[in-house]
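Why do we care about 3D structure at all? Because function follows from shape, and shape follows, mostly, from sequence. That is the central idea of this module. The next example makes it concrete: a single protein chain, its amino acid sequence, and then its structure expressed as tokens.
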Amino acid sequence: MQGLEESTALVRLFNGEEVLRAFLSHTEVEVAPFRGYMWVNTDGGRIVVSRDYLREAEEVLLYLDLIHEIVHLRQLSQGMELFDEKYSYDQRPTELEAYRVTLEEARSLGLSDDFIREYLKVDWMTDGQHRRLLRALELPP
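And the structure:
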């Protein structure tokens, strides 16, 4: 996970590069042979990425997804419930935090709001959920 310790958003989230570097040194990534994207395996506390996604995705998308999933790993290490069914995906506190950190990193990279809005439009959200997520992140539609 070399290079992630320079993420301005993660450094802020972890209260310093040293703490982030220590966390990342224990972070595992599993490449799995299936179609899909990237997520956290809550049983093993590691990031799982689809081999096809790893091969096909733009580097910037992989990078932003890693930022998002590292936030989830941190939440998991703090005992947070990542998949609290009381909330819809677009309003779940753990997702909102992960997306806020990812948004901060995307902006630090100089990515446009149009690019970010499109990045946040994922297969598992309806258009209405996407609009609610944008409002929650204070990102103009």
